[in-house]
Amino acid sequence: HIAMLVALFWLSLLLLFYIYFGYPLMAKAAALLWPSPIKADAEHQPKASILIAAYNEAQDIEATLRNKLALDYPADKLEVLVISDESDDGTDEIIERVANESPFPIRLFRQVPRQGKTAGLNTLVPETTGDIVLFSDANSQWDSQAVSRLCSNFADPDVGYVTGKMVYVNDDGSLVGDGCSAYMKYENWLREQETRVGSVVGVDGGIDAMRKTLYQPLRADQLPDFVQPLKVVEQGHRVVYEPLALLKEEALNDSDSEFSMRVRVSLRALWALKDMRHLMSPLRDPVFSWQLISHKLLRYAAFVPLATLALSTLLLASAGGIYTLAFLGLVIFAALAWTGHKREGEGKLLSVIYSIPYYFMLLNIASYKATAAFLKGEKKVIWNPRKG
Predict the structure, then answer these.
(1) Rounded to the nearest 10 degrees, how much is the dihedral formed by the CA atoms of 121, 123, 126, 128?
(2) Whether the model pTM is above 0.70
(3) Which side of the chain, N or C, has fewer Cβ within a 10 Å radius?
(4) Confidence label for 344 from pLDDT (cuts 50, 70 and 90)
(5) pLDDT, position 223
(6) 246 by DSSP, 3-state: which?
(7) Secondary structure (3-state) at 208
(8) Rounded (10°) CA dihedral 145, 213, 110, 143
(9) What's the CA dihedral at 275, 278, 279, 282 to 10 degrees?
(10) What are the E-state strand segments in 205-296?
(11) Coil, helix or strand for 52?
């Protein structure tokens, strides 16, 4: 009985260590030993089409379109296509008003009845004239150099998809701290290593670009930010991270909307992994299958070893030595996470000592809820936009 608990404790601990530290360190080692540099060229400026799916975005859409008007990219090589998903709050009229004073085409399409973002993108892509299609959310504020930075990577014929970097800003547009949460810093560092190895496994969604020729129409219930990059890898191209292409997003102080967004994204990512599970076969591409299993599948399933570690620690707490220490560590970690949750609920900025345990627990509980929904066969196709 004790021996089984001890084995469970160490197995759970080792698996968690691998998921959060072992895999990133191995990716770093692979990036150093077998690097795949990108042959980027700052002068490479292909024709680019920016796509935006909008549902009742009257309060954000004008700022988003004016942000695109301010991009530092040749106007004769730009166009914006917006699909309004049966908006009824004046979104369409705002788009048409801004389009009338734009130096490049801003074209409005309407999707009736409401079908969600993925169906909207399927409609827009055949209407584009650009070689590169870029994906922006309806509230995405890009740095003026973003399109240039993203497109420079397509000078390399192996590159099929490029994702940028999200930074958090205050209401006045200034960076929050250095602009990234501790979790985002960790994710971005990992993306840099994965890019050097070959391809990244996760992208941001609000600042992405891909070759139009590689776009594949998706089912309405598929998550474009997750499935489309996997389709690019499937076609033999690279998905890379461009840290100089910045997406500025207002910091969310609403933990409830953050949590529900995480559950929703995790649920759709689990369906995506099921759809694209052939990419997890080591026979197809051993390196990418290892990345996909380690970075995504095991990360979404990390709540399992977390639960077994907590259970075995509780039952071994009286055994003394390292198990008593582990129990104390667990109690302190849980207390810090709970304090982080309370402090964020009061609108206070979190220091790293609270934010890391809190965010770690939030992501794992969201993964648990998403997995339960996935096992019941639930899918999410449309939702109301989260408000920053």
Answers:
(1) -60
(2) yes
(3) N
(4) confident
(5) 86
(6) strand
(7) strand
(8) -10
(9) 150
(10) 207-211, 238-250
(11) strand
